Amino acid sequence: MNNIAVLPIILPLLAAIIVAFFPRKLQLVRFLSQGLSLIFLGVIGWITWKVYTGGIIVLQSGGWDAPFGISIVADYLSVLLVLTTFIIGAAAVFYAPHALSLEQESFYFYTFYFMLISGVSGAFLTGDLFNLFVFFEVLLMASYGLIILGNGKIQLRESLKYVLINLFSSMLFVTAVAFIYSAVGTVNLAQIAERVESAEQQGVLTAIGILLFFVFAVKAAIFPLYYWLPNSYVVPNPVVSALFGALLTKVGIYSIMRVFTLIFVHDTGLTHELFIWLAMFTMIFGAIGALSTNNVKLIITYNIIPAIGFILMGIGLHSEIGIAGSVYYLLHDMVIKGALFFLAGALIVAAGTKDLKKMSGVIHKYPLLGWMIFISALVLAGIPPFSGFIGKLLLLQGALAQEEYLLSIVALASSLLILFSMIRIFVEGVWGEESKLVTTEKKKVNRLTIPAVVLIAISIFMGIGAEYIYPHTETIAEMLMERTEYINSVLKE
């Protein structure tokens, strides 16, 4: 039964191979991709239920016990993130036919899509550092294929920048893995956690931890390493931006959460205080960036950055309520960022432009789109009773409990800036008199809006139904802070 832990990795990888054989038969590939995505979502839902009712599932590949075999660990955190990944992926695969040109679709979009889902799932589920590096490379290879869909000069320039930055961070990652192996003699996360406590060279381990943090911070777009993200994520098609914004940066921040609650907990006075300061700068600078542009898609892209700051805030607090808030906010942001990029794509088609200054009155022809943008703005900003509010409330409770008053003020200020940047889209682009540029492609716009409606409905439930979801995030926080359940499950102690 433990073999089911590898299904979120294997199933989309097999699907990627299958659809690669039919690049020109788009109708068949669409049908297969949409059908398989829904089936896979059902399977992942079943695996999530098995974990939450029966406990952590650990697969040791080849029958070799940890630390000799490759460990796939489906714990309370990883399965919830994998489930959210497949929900966003399923929405994206229904959005794609209406957002992509026939040429873009036929250029192996669905193959790269399934590879991306497999890589992201593997990164969430792996139980050792080296295979975390491997799955990072899998998802990055898929992202390279997705980001070049198109033929603009700006897109090619930003794609090259994206590739070079990730190649550099991957080089540092494999170097950090080599250093930690030389220091403790293993790359298995659970065994590293055991050996770190008794290791003699604590200063060296702290330095390795900071190097790993640097690698993950590049991938998560944490201040000051977020400079590559806005232009790299704004140039692809909206469906690609949705996958990137909802999933890729979250793998980076998840890695920080996992590594710095499981392994590097021996010198929290240094590392976690650094996290708090970086979280504050990330929240503020990302929100200011969102106010500095009139490009609708770029506003949403910049709003990825402060969300990472909020999640890092809870990790830096290093308390159960702080971690619970980070997990809640992470799940919320994955869902709402996917919805926002879907809505941005629909709005650009409806308005006939990306420029807020040229938009107006879209709501008259497209009321569903208009009101979804308004609701999503409230969700993202953390207005009660939506999911963003629950995550931020937990984070603020954690900050105030530790008398982190400056952090609390910065978090509230960032939330106000985020709200203002999103309300600008509604007031300037959606409300008001109808612009002459507004198109009449009602059928296409509605089809682009529906996947976003599904994700927004999930986000609303996460807010209104917080009493059902919070106990699970609390359980995750307890597991991450205690560490013993994870370590014992992997090492069978």
Automatic annotation (TrEMBL):
Which Pfam families does this one have? Answer: Proton_antipo_M
Topology in the lipid bilayer is annotated as: Multi-pass membrane protein
- NADH:quinone oxidoreductase/Mrp antiporter transmembrane domain segment(s): 127-416
Q: Which GO terms fall under biological process for this protein? A: ATP synthesis coupled electron transport
An MF annotation (GO) of this entry: NADH dehydrogenase (ubiquinone) activity
Per UniProt, subcellular location reads as: Cell membrane; Membrane
Predominant subcellular localization, coarse grouping: membrane
Instruction: Please provide the record's keywords in A-Z order.
Output: Antiport, Cell membrane, Membrane, Transmembrane, Transmembrane helix, Transport
Transmembrane feature ranges: 6-23, 35-52, 72-95, 107-126, 132-150, 162-184, 204-227, 239-262, 274-292, 304-329, 335-356, 368-386, 406-427, 448-470
Q: Name one GO cellular component term.
A: plasma membrane
Q: Which family does it belong to?
A: Belongs to the CPA3 antiporters (TC 2.A.63) subunit D family.
Q: Which PANTHER family match?
A: NA(+)_H(+) ANTIPORTER SUBUNIT D1, NADH DEHYDROGENASE
Question: What is the protein name stated in its UniProt record?
Answer: Na+/H+ antiporter subunit D
The scientific name of the source species is: Halalkalibacillus sediminis
